[in-house]
Amino acid sequence: MPDPICEGEVLPPRRHPGGRKLGSRDALLATADGAPPDVVATVRAVLTAVRQRKLSGKLARELLVRVAPPARATVSVALPKIVDAASHAAAQAAILEAVSSGRVPPAEGKALGDVARRTFEAVKLAQRARLLRTT
Fold this sequence. Notes:
The chain is built from six helices and no strands.
């Protein structure tokens, strides 16, 4: 029996009794709303290739993760305005508390800590520049 994929034949769609309804959208395409048109076109092309068995599901997943990485959850931590060493320490303490309580993943906590540190360094630099201008 010839291989339908190599011959270029399109296989009829399979119907699964417990599957989703005809005409419903893939979850991946539903989440692609608002994405650039070229990303949506790429997602559609990859999904079509998987349906036609021209591309394995594993390879398709790798391609799509590189083209349109999965969205990460947004984290929110109330931080004080960093104007001196004490406020920087308070900001770092708030970040540490958020990570230790599990509200913020450790990697995000590290990124927030880095932002707080850079902000503090910028504040110190601005204070030094102000002192040099006044003298």
